[in-house]
Write the structure tokens for this entry.
Amino acid sequence: MNFLKRFVDSWYGVLLVSGLFSFAMMYRYIVPLNGILYREGAEGHDWGQMVWNLWFVNEAITAGHNPYFTNLLFYPVGANLAHHTLAAGFFPVTFLVKLFSRGDPLYPIYAYHIIILLCFTATLACSYFLLRELAITRLAAAIAACAYAFCDYYQIHTLHLNLLAGFFLPLTALFLVRAYKEPQSPNFMYAVIVSAAAVYFTEYALYLYLGMVVFASLWLLFRETRRSLIDAISQLGVKRLAAAFALFLLLVIPFAVNFASAHGIKPLPVESSVYSANVAAFVVPGTNHPLLNKVFGPLNARVTAGLGGYEAFLGFTLIIFAGVGFFITKNRLVRICGISAIVFYLLALGPTLKVFGSDTGTRLPYSLLMQIPPFAMGRTPVRFVAVASFFLMIVAAAGMAWLHFALTRRLGRSWALALMLTLLVVTVAGAYTRTYRRHSFVPPANLRARVIGPVFNVPLRGNDGYASLLQVFHGQPIATGYVARESVETRNRFLELKRIYDHGGPDFCDRITALGFRNIVITGGEVVVPLELSRCSIPVIDLRSDPSWLRSFPAFAGNDVPRFPDYPYGVTLDFGFTNRDGYERLADKYLWYGWSGPEKNSRWTERARAAITFKVTEVSAAVVHLQMAPFLVPGKLASQRVEIELNDQRVTSLSLANGAFNEYEISLPLSAMREENVLTFSLPDATSPQSLGVSEDTRLLGINVKWLTISQNRPR
């Protein structure tokens, strides 16, 4: 028994147990080492971005280049990465993985999975060490550390390495507590080194510094704690404090210089509101808890404002025992940690208070903080949950320790041990999230050999994690990429390329070739027919037909071939959200390409061409009735030309100079009609509101359609 106690208190024992436990909890995120964490949607792009980050930093540093700038993205403008989620501090792990894998092209993916394990292990172990340093019992420390390390926030952000580096919070606190107890020890310098190094891993560094300020300010409010802190600082001495300050600056300045040189575009204020926590979400479990969701599902469905019931749930173990710890204990440290937790949960709520489905509009402290650099560059106040839950963990651990002692006095050691172990099992079961088996990633076989020179990635996206992922294997500059904060230069470059892309047409390839691009790589997700790539003189590599790519990302199968849904003559297709008959929006399945998402009563075209496909049972002359309005800007865009084709046969041309919605009638001749039909709208005057200075909308707007009906045109 004594050996077991020594083992669980030793650094090697805690790290070993923490590593094995983290491996079991996060198994599907770690195995296989070449597994794809997310295959589609926004998360898929984030996954590609994170793999790219590891690859780029390793290649840049080993080549002696600055990892905070790249000319591989947004060719040839490049991008400053100081405001990006780069997590450059993980470089040693990536370097060693490449070394031991003998340069395997998949090494950044291997490193990604290993870093996930290391982050959860370090957060769990450092939290346990800190709580033991604060005289928390072993079992209480283990339970609280598990509840914090595997809380919803960290597990939902497993994908984002910059947000998994939560171990900097307990690790820095551990060294500070030890330095407070023994000011003459080297622990203060360790705390300085760790807190300074954090800027190379995560934006939590900024939260860490703010947390120190908040905690120290509260600590100084009380006479006895103020005296003890002043005494500890005096024992450090002026020379040691000056040396620590100099060391901190020495470590931080390289990052600070790069950060100051980057001129990222500030997020819109509304983004801080969108990415803020909902106060109800702190105590209502989300859908990622299947068992709890059976009970709390209806309540969680009502949590919709802000981020809704997503990532902010604290866990019942922390909630219950934090209440016990705060109100039962007389320890001043616990009370101050509780108040600090409240401060940061308040900041996590963002600029205005959101409760269930309502944004109350009540101004909160974050509305002031978001005006102050460098917080002004942030858009996700919900991330304050990480530091808030750290403080809450300490309070909850104190509550569990009190319970442990109370149970021991009343029931004896054996029963107390059994009940605390039961609490540990319940906490672990509540934190565990079952995930699906990951598919292995297979690099497209023809990329490395066939791609030489700058790549135009299709479809063109402002944030293209898949294009970044492919760059890991072909190594050539790409048209866009994925950076967390765009600059004026990268935004303008994207808008320039987007205008060319949206116009498409027979001269598309000539135009991008003139800009220096020598390859086109297609990953799918959008119909590329309007680009007319068959006319290209440069290589076009279509991964939608590549077996290795499709095994990894089946959702990106070729989607250029139109579907021809049956269309009963005379049925009205509503293009907006609403439907006059209250039924399913019938228009969606007939829209092939070039259409934006639905608005309340209508839908815009967003490219220079838009198409509708339909199938009829009886081929005959027909007539189209539709209600539409052109995109016009007085003094800048007076009219909008609309050229209409049916199955590549020109039907009519319109010039729309009236900005109001009007009904139009278009005849479809029998000579052009087929059983399967493509009705195309060509819009040579389509342009974006952003380019005309009307708004920030970058869509290439042409016409706005409310409804459309096709009827047989029978001779009278």
Summary: The CA atoms of residues 429 and 574 lie 48 Å apart. The chain has a mean pLDDT of 91. The chain has 26 helices and 19 strands.
